[in-house]
Amino acid sequence: MPWPANSPDLNPIEHMWDELCRRVQQHHPPPANLGQLLQWLQQEWNGVPRSFICNLIHSMRQRCVECLAYNGGHTRY
Prior knowledge:
Blueprint lengths: L12 H13 L8 H14 L2 H9 L1 H10 L8
């Protein structure tokens, strides 16, 4: 499949980073230092449900189909 110049990033890891960011931002107060941030990132990474990760993986076919259908333009992903 050719990679359209204006296509969105189809890599599902972008959605994983977004989920991780939301989870870490729920901690209050913010991390006191880099070590605490790293600890929270690892904790939240390990806490992401397996079903979330599987859904990201299984959505790849549909992501590609929509990307092609919209000629690399905006998709719901």
